[in-house]
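WARN no homologs supplied; continuing
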Amino acid sequence: MTILATNLGFPRIGGHRELKTAVESYWAGKSPVDELLKTAASLRARHWLVQQKAGIDHIPSNDFSLYDQMLDTIAMLGAVPPRYGHTGGNVSLDLYFAMARGRQDAPAMEMTKWFDTNYHYIVPELTADTSFGLSTTKAVDEFKEAKFLGITTRPVLIGPVTFLKLAKMRDGADRWALLPKILPVYQQVLKALAEAGAEWVQIDEPVLVSDLDPATKDAFSDAYSELTGVPVKVLLATYFGSVGDNSQTLVALPVAGVHIDLVRAPEQLAAVARALPKERILSLGLINGRNIWKSGLTDGERLIEEARKLHGDKLFVGPSCSLLHSPVDLDTETKLDTELRGWLAFATQKLTEISALAHSANGKRDGAYFQEHSRAVGSRVTSTRIHDPAVKQRLAAVTPDMAERSTPFKDRIALQQSILKLPLLPTTSIGSLPQTKEIRELRASFKKGGIDQATYEKALEDKTAEAMRWQDEIDIDVPVHGEYERNDMVEYFGEQLKGFVFTERAWVQSYGSRCVKPPIIFGDVSRPEPMTVRWTAMAQKYTKKPVKGMLTGPVTILQWSFVRDDQPRSETCKQIALAIRDEVLDLEKAGVKIIQIDEAALREGLPIRKSEWQHYLDWAVESFRLTASGVKAETQVHTHMCYSEFNDIIAAVAAMDADVISIETSRSAMELLDAFVSFKYPNDIGPGVYDIHSPRVPTQGEMENLLTKALNVLSPQQLWVNPDCGLKTRGWKEVEPALVSMVAAAKAVRKKLEVTNSRPELV
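OK structure emitted
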């Protein structure tokens, strides 16, 4: 039997972010829906043809999305929350985007991280009464699109168990009671795909690599027993780790094939290959779908041979997971030096690696390709650019006391308040202010040589001064300088640190139209000179209020970069921590009294399996503390975390010992605050009251209600008032009224407070 080259998914944004441009133009009312749909169809066709040209036998369809694949599944099932007024039938494009972004009469749906990636998905909102019905024909339509081009694809669906497992049950009802209600919709879709000519359908069930309770395992058995009658072959795909103790559940499912991730968990091959019935396909995830490094193809060949001995020739070869998490095409990069470029493979190049492994397994090994590939990978191992003895010596000299604040929080906070003299419920924002078209064009002109550095920096200072004056006018208690000099919260720092390199177009999707261009950490990390001090000090000249210094923390820089894979991630993280520690101390020397060290990605780095959590949390928390603990007691350290469930890591969050933590809570209506309350979190907290991921402007009354809800469980001395996240992606027409209302809400609630024994009462 021929071993096929397959793919689980391809980046949807386009090599030049064409999807982002088209979607945002439609949102802004600048282009009609036909233009958006035309761009989307063009991207799909291009991506299918690229995969066909690379020699991929099973090319995915329905992996494309205008926003998010979980939102696509919500739409497919008709599981629209009641607040959007949907009464059944087709889910329109405007309703689809309203669920993702909100509208003035209906807030957006909650968003959170997709397993341990930096991709965000829309969280399904369900109740016992949720009704389901087929409400889009997207999966079938896109299969037919590809077929018209002469390509028979393998459609991709998010599996029913993963969908329900990741859903939020708004009424606390049993999620598995909904399984019999959604399976008929899946059966309809699979039958329609078969009628359209599909032979295989890929159903993604990544929850199989997580810790599953008996009810979830039973749900798998029930779901796939019910789906056995569908007239297509089902490839059930797992990824992001080992199926581990779920392997018996996996191999017992009545599906035509299963996919396992052998990049994250090569050790699982033997157990799955032996247990899987020999008549079923075993799909091998051999090429890393989450990084940018060339793969070790000889390792892949070894795993194929091992699989063949254990399971026979009924094998597919593919990436570890969807290539969604990799940039599109290395060929769009023109400025990388030859040596470093030779170490890299983006999604398009990874297709070639997959195809090469399949050809090798079928006795058609391209010796020249493998030889050149091996030479490039080997040159990275021996390159002198990677190792810096001074960095390694400094890290080896770190002592435990360097990661400890010298004064307990209760003493620090009293000292800080005596100096800062902030009111109850102090207001601030998370860091960035809107990056307008004018600022983006200014930066682009500077990078292209259109203006000199002095002109560029003078323009940025003028913008910063304007922002400081405006914040004073609306009476924000702790202003920020706006970060106009920064292109991205990670890229800005990486550009000034040794051991990093940057690309022109290595964009990946974070959520919706939001794309990020992660830096590449290829070597040892250090800070040659101060990075932010001059901008924060300059901003302080324009206000008497304490300007907050803004830094990105070591764990977030690590998580939001493509990281070298030749040493433990913990070691790279601590190198970054020492570099940021130097910046923290320089900010303090410059007179900055409040320093925020964002750790937006702390939870997303958490391993999927709980047995691996403590090791990660130990080095992640140590890295943050190493960054923050060199300052004096009177310097107030803040941190910020993005959408996360905190219940299971709250002890680690407390161990970070930040004086103030701000978190995203507005979409969850303060539900995420519960973890801090149950834990009796001792330090100050700023739960977000303004959802910055939506264009919707909340009213003062809505924010007052959120603050009142927070004060039911927190003391007023503990509570800060802030948006959910930075405001870079929003426009001033939204930000100005929202922040004015936020300040007004804080003042209104302040007036209502009577403080008794550190607990609030509203009068």
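The chain has 27 helices and 24 strands.
OK
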